[in-house]
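hey
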């Protein structure tokens, strides 16, 4: 203790001895002051030199003999509550609320037998509520909520027989509500909200007959709402929202004739709304939303004249709104019926609710046209929410007469026609959502008269024409969403004067032209999407001034020139410029956006290498640089991008070897390095990428063996290694990739046989392509287990033996190629007869449809005879054929000689003519044979 404090303590002790109780209290208060931190110097005049009753926050008795009140609320105090408070026994009121006091509630406070009011709320107190507080027999107000108190509510609370106000809300209390609460006969207000209380609401609470305010919202209370709650006839506020209460709403609640506020939202209540609730004539606010209440709406007859807010959203209510709903003297201001199963046409009964300010019928099954007559009688309406229904027809121009309208939500309907020009009269309109309808025509120029507009969303309609040139009048505009329409023409330069604009979405239209240089004024812009249009030309250099841009999507346009104007913001999270004509280098300045997660620059004319600064993009998730003219090696530029899930570098001119650090990208799901100039081996470290779904390395110069670690990629769907220089055998570990549905290993130098385990890849569907390799051996019958396979290509290899009959089970197969294997033989499975002969070319020993048929008998004999027997049979056949030919030749010679003798004997001087005919026949025969020989050769 410092010398000063020691002096004060001694001085106060002397004063206490000489002056009596008053000085004793001052001594205690100075001790209390020493344990508090007072940055606002509220306690500066707490000094022994001044009269204690003049100290800040203190109240003394009429004769200044006793300290009866201490109020230091909102004084900026911190520190702890001193045990010395327990010795200020004359205190009747102690208020330390709304400070920054920490620590425990001292048990010594239970000694203050005269205390009537104890206010410790809105601090940082922790620990449990001391049971000793139950000794304060005269206590009327106990408010210690909005702290970090934990544990259960002590049962000793039930001893506070004079208690009128108990505030324990906004803490971390658990356990159940003690039944002893029912002993508090004079309790008027009970606040238990925002804790972790569980169990049932005790029946004993019916003993609190004077209770006016009961709030136990945002806990974990369960069970049904007790009928005994109906005995609390003085109750004015009942708030049980966001618990897990179940069962139906008890009819007995209708006995609470003084109830003004009833909130049961966010429970598991079911059944219908009791019609008896129409007797609660004082009810002003009723919220039954987010339950499972069903049936029809039977509320709001002539008795509920004071009801101002009715919230029934998020239930299973059916039918339509009753005809006696809302009579002329109704005070109803807020009606929320969203997310139910209500049906029918727009309820004209609502037009009687002349005091309505907010109307929400969204997410129901209403249909038909919106009323054109009478809608403008709702002159006080500020929010009209009719989205996600089945309304059709055109927009009533009368909506333009709702002069107080601020929010108009009509999206997700089937509304057709034009946007009425009368909407331009809605000068207070802030939000207009008309997206997902079938609106047509132009955006009315008059809409730009609504200068209070902050959000416009016309997405997904059929609007045509240009964006109004006067759009710049909307100085308060924050969001402009016109995506997916048929708008054309350029972006108006005046748009640049909407200086508060944060979101600009013009994608999926037919807009064209250059970006206006006035975009430099959109300093608040953080998201701009222009994709799928026909914008062209270089980007304005002034775009570099837009420092808050986070999302840019200019893909599928005709932009050209460098990317540098888009690098002014260090806040980029997504940049997509796919399918344009951008050229030059990838700017290293992009690496300044440390939160960049998506970078897509594919299908442009970019050149150079990946900037080394990309090493800093540790949040990068999607990188697509495919279809450019990029060169160089993939060194360490991406080695720290551990969040990468998609890495697409295909269709460039990258060279060098594949880096081993790819194996450290544990989240990688897609790796495409195809169509480059990579060489060297496939790094076995890729086997560490356990989440990899697609691996495409085709069309490179990779060599060496396929690493067996590929089998570790158990999630792999696509493996494409074709058109490389890979050698060795197909690793059997591939069978561990059980989720493969596409496997391409063609056009390499793979050798050996097909592993029989490939038959375990039962999810293979798209293709199995092993063509153009040096594979040999027999085709494994296990391939017949690939029942989902649609394409099988084993052509241009050295397979031998028969085509396994098990392949006939591949009924999903629509493309088959077994051509040019030379050593395949035997009959083709009959189920392959529908494939073209080209599927089997280059296999002379195969037979059966669609090739030449096989004789079954000869096939069976051939199987039974030995090679020697077969040679003997062939020799016999040849010898027999020669003998037959000689006999036939002999017969023909004899016949010719006899004929010639007859011819000579009959000659009468015409020998020259006969010789000419003979020569013509001979030459003609020779000519025919020559022609035939030429045809054969040509074939």
């Amino acid at each position: 203790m410092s010398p000063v404090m020691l002096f004060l303590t001694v001085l106060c002790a002397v004063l206490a001895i000489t002056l009596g109780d008053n000085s004793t209290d001052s001594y205690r208060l100075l001790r209390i002051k020493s344990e508090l931190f007072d940055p606002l110097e509220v306690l500066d005049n707490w000094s022994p030199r001044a009269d204690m009753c003049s100290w800040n926050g203190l109240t003394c008795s009429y004769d200044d003999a006793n300290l009866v009140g201490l109020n230091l609320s909102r004084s900026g105090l911190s520190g702890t509550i001193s045990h010395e408070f327990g010795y200020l026994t004359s205190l009747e009121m102690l208020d330390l609320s709304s400070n920054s006091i920490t620590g425990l509630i001292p048990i010594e406070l239970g000694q203050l037998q005269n205390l009537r009011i104890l206010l410790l709320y809105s601090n940082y107190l922790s620990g449990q509520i001391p049971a000793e507080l139950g000794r304060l027999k005269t206590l009327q107000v106990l408010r210690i909520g909005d702290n970090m108190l934990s544990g259960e509510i002590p049962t000793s609370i039930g001893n506070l027989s004079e208690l009128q106000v108990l505030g324990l809300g906004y803490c971390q209390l658990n356990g159940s509500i003690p039944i002893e609460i029912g002993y508090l006969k004079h309790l008027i207000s009970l606040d238990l909200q925002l804790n972790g209380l569980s169990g049932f609401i005790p029946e004993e609470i019916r003993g609190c007959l004077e209770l006016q305010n009961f709030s136990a919202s945002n806990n974990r209370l369960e069970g049904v709402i007790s009928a005994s709650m109906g005995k609390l006839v003085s109750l004015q506020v009942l708030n049980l929202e966001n618990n897990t209460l179940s069962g139906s709403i008890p009819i007995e609640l209708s006995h609470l004739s003084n109830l003004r506020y009833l909130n049961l939202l966010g429970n598991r209540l079911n059944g219908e709304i009791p019609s008896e609730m129409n007797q609660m004539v004082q009810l002003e606010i009723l919220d039954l939303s987010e339950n499972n209440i069903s049936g029809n709406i039977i509320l709001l007859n002539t008795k509920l004249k004071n009801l101002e807010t009715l919230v029934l959203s998020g239930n299973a209510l059916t039918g339509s709104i009753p005809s006696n709903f809302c009579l002329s003297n109704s005070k109803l201001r807020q009606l929320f019926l969203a997310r139910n199963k209500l049906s029918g046409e727009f309820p004209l009964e609502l037009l009687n609710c002349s005091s309505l300010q907010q109307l929400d019928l969204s997410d129901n099954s209403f249909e038909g046209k919106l009323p054109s007559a009478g809608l403008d009688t709702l002159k006080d309406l500020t929010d009209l929410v009719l989205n996600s229904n089945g309304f059709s027809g055109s927009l009533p121009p009368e909506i333009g007469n709702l002069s107080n309208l601020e929010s108009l939500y009509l999206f997700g309907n089937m509304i057709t026609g034009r946007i009425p020009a009368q909407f331009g009269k809605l000068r207070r309109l802030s939000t207009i959502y008309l997206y997902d309808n079938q609106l047509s025509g132009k955006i009315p120029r008059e809409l730009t008269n609504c200068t209070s507009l902050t959000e416009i969303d016309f997405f997904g309609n059929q609007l045509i024409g240009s964006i109004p040139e006067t759009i710049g009048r909307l100085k308060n505009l924050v969001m402009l969403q016109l995506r997916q329409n048929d708008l054309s023409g350029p972006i108006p330069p005046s748009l640049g004067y909407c200086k508060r604009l944060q979101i600009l979405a013009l994608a999926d239209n037919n807009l064209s032209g250059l970006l206006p240089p006035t975009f430099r004024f959109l300093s608040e812009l953080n998201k701009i999407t222009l994709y799928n249009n026909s914008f062209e030309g270089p980007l304005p250099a002034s775009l570099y001034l837009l420092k808050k841009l986070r999302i840019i999507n200019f893909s599928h346009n005709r932009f050209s020139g460098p990317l540098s104007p888009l690098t002014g913001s260090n806040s980029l999270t997504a940049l997509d410029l796919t399918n344009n004509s951008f050229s030059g280098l990838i700017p290293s300045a992009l690496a300044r956006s440390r939160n960049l997660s998506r970078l897509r620059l594919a299908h442009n004319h970019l050149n150079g290498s990946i900037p080394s600064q990309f090493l800093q993009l540790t949040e990068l998730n999607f990188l697509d640089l495919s279809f450019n003219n990029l060169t160089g090696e993939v060194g360490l530029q991406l080695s720290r991008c551990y969040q990468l899930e998609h890495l697409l570098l295909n269709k460039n001119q990258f060279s060098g070897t594949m880096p081993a650090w790819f194996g450290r990208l544990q989240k990688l799901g897609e790796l495409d390095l195809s169509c480059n100039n990579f060489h060297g081996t496939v790094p076995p470290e890729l086997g560490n990428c356990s989440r990899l779904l697609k691996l495409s390395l085709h069309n490179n110069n990779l060599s060496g063996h396929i690493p067996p670690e590929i089998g570790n990629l158990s999630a792999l769907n696509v493996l494409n290694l074709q058109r490389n220089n890979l050698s060795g055998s197909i690793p059997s570990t591939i069978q561990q990739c059980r989720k493969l549905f596409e496997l391409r290993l063609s056009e390499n130098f793979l050798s050996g046989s097909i592993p029989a385990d490939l038959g375990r890849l039962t999810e293979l569907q798209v293709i199995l392509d092993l063509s153009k390799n040096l594979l040999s051996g027999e085709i494994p019958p296990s391939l017949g287990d690939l029942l989902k396979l649609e394409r099988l290509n084993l052509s241009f290899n050295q397979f031998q033996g028969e085509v396994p009959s098990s392949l006939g089970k591949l009924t999903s197969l629509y493309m088959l190629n077994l051509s040019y294997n030379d050593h395949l033989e035997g009959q083709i499975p009959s189920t392959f007869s529908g494939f073209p002969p080209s599927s089997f070319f280059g296999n002379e020993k195969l037979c059966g449809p669609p090739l030449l048929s096989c004789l079954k008998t000869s096939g069976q004999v051939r199987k039974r005879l030995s090679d020697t027997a077969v040679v003997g049979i062939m020799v016999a056949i040849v010898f027999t054929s020669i003998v037959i030919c000689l006999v036939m030749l002999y017969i023909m010679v004899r016949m010719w000689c006899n004929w010639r003798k007859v011819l000579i004997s009959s000659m009468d001087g015409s020998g020259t003519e006969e010789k000419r005919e003979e020569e013509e026949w001979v030459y003609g025969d020779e000519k025919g044979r020559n022609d035939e020989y030429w045809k054969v050769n040509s074939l």
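The helical segments are 3-19, 21-34, 856-864, 867-905, 911-938. The CA atoms of residues 46 and 895 lie 156 Å apart.
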